Amino acid sequence: MTGIKEPSFRESVDLMFNRAASLMDLPPGLEEKIRVCNATYTVRFGVRLRGQIHTFTGYRSVHSEHMEPVKGGIRYALAVNQDEVEALAALMTYKCALVEAPFGGSKGGLCIDPRQYEEHEMEQITRRFAYELAKRDLINPSQNVPAPDMGTGEREMAWMADQYARMNTTDINARACVTGKPLNAGGIAGRVEATGRGIQYALREFFRNPEDVQKAGLSGSLDGKRVIVQGLGNVGYHAAKFLSEEDGSRVIGIIEWDGALFNPDGIDVEAVRQWIVKHGGVKNYPDATHTAEGGAVLEEECDILIPAALEGVVNMSNAERIKAPLIIEAANGPVTAGADEILRKKGTVIIPDMYANAGGVTVSYFEWVKNLSHIRFGRMQRRQEEARHELIVSELQRLDRYLGDAWSMSPDFKSKYLKGADELELVRSGLDDTMRIAYQAMSEVWHDRDDVEDLRTAAYIVAIDRVSKSYRAKGL
Ligand code: NAD
């Protein structure tokens, strides 16, 4: 691969798209229409802070409006640029199509290091950015609905929603203008954990398919699998926590911005998270070995590698040395197109970003629907379901008495069966179902077609096919 230039993030997404499109029979011109980004808005705005005006640069890119509103997170990072925002917007189009969330793709970003600002300064900057976007309908419940991404969370979404509501005082659906809001500001239970939870559900579904597990040279279940995770932020933390606490996987490596922790016996994810909250990084964490050169730990032996931080971390310079037989792309674009080719030749199985981290947009979809319907999920039917269950339980109790010692109800059956599902349970159930169905759609193409070598190409084929059908239905 020496001498071949590493593609940019957007070029990588386009190369992967082209690879899949070349295996499809699309009408002339439609391929290009789907691939290109419709529009990217760049805004520079000033905010008076600490006695002087600071100028910030932000972007909102709309990749495809085959369905509206368009959807995608807003990222706060110094490295944000147009190429990145456009690549992420394109991935959103394909991701939404793959998990059947009825949205087009969009993404936004602000060039900023949030660590340099006080909370009240962040609020001023965020409100001003939201004002600039809302003014142009780039935040709008029926046209463009942002969500959190790297560097943003519930706090920023609450400010943005409030800013939109102040500018649109009579819009009854104002709360649906962004997702990922806190519960008390119109959010939904389970949104914060959603992307990490989706990683867990994706891996569970993968391990339900022994043939696929075998392709990665693995066997058995998630129990005992050695995991290395890069980035213990929203996505990485929840994924690593759930896998270690609920599925018996062993997290042996955690890579953060200030180096990596390694312990072959396993690392306590919750303890490291608390350490980061207190100390700002992983350095000096007592129960693991710290390496300053964090990236090197990507190359350690493990069963599952979860890059959950930045794009392009597995690239042409290190792909050959990656030992993990299974990579699940929790971050967007962590594997470049060049690295993808090297890994494919090596037989590494990659569960692609467009599927793997779709848990976030899936639960955002539920939140948007909740906001538009103005009612919490389960509010109407929960007690009615409980009453119907009560009927069955009382009949079973009658039977229990009648049969005497011959049969009795299991001790906790009654309490378990009677409990109606709350919002969190419904959200998790909807997310699990979405992740299973999307996996099946993707793996069907992977298995059925000899010319499709990998899950990523299969995922693109499913997504492009759906987007193209939607364009054709519109008469394009
Ligand atoms: P986050 O800001 O919560 O976490 C990112 C983490 O990565 C932080 O802990 C940060 O310290 C760490 N990090 C920064 N630089 C690093 C480096 N050089 N090496 C190792 N770690 C480093 O962000 P997030 O929301 O968890 O997003 C992570 C990725 O997941 C992004 O690619 C994002 O686009 C993608 N994603 C997020 C969501 C979501 O719902 N938040 C949804 C889909 C995809």
Plain-language structure description:
It is globular, with a radius of gyration of 23 Å. By secondary structure, the chain is α/β, with parallel strands linked by helices. The mean pLDDT is 96. Among the domains are: 131 residues, NAD(P)-binding Rossmann-like Domain (Rossmann fold, 3-Layer(aba) Sandwich); 62 residues, no CATH class. Bound molecules: nicotinamide-adenine-dinucleotide (NAD). The site of nicotinamide-adenine-dinucleotide has 24 residues, from α8 and β7.
CATH topology of one domain: Rossmann fold
CATH superfamily descriptor of one domain: NAD(P)-binding Rossmann-like Domain
Total beta strands: 12
The top level CATH class name of one domain: Alpha Beta
Number of helical segments with 4 or more residues: 16
Structural class, from helix and strand content? alpha/beta
How is the main sheet built? 7 strands, mixed
* Large-scale geometry: globular
**Ligands, deduplicated:** nicotinamide-adenine-dinucleotide
| Mean pLDDT across residues | 96
Q: How much beta, percentage-wise?
A: 15-25%
Residue stretches low in confidence (pLDDT < 50, at least 5 long) are: none
Taking all Cα atoms into account, the compactness measure Rg is 23 Å
Q: What is the rounded distance between the termini?
A: 40 Å
- The CATH architecture name of one domain reads 3-Layer(aba) Sandwich
Order of helices and strands: HHEEEHEHEHHHEHEEHEEEHEHHHHHH
The largest beta-sheet arranges its strands as 9-8-7-6-10-11-12
User: How much helical structure, as a percent, in the residues?
Assistant: 40-55%
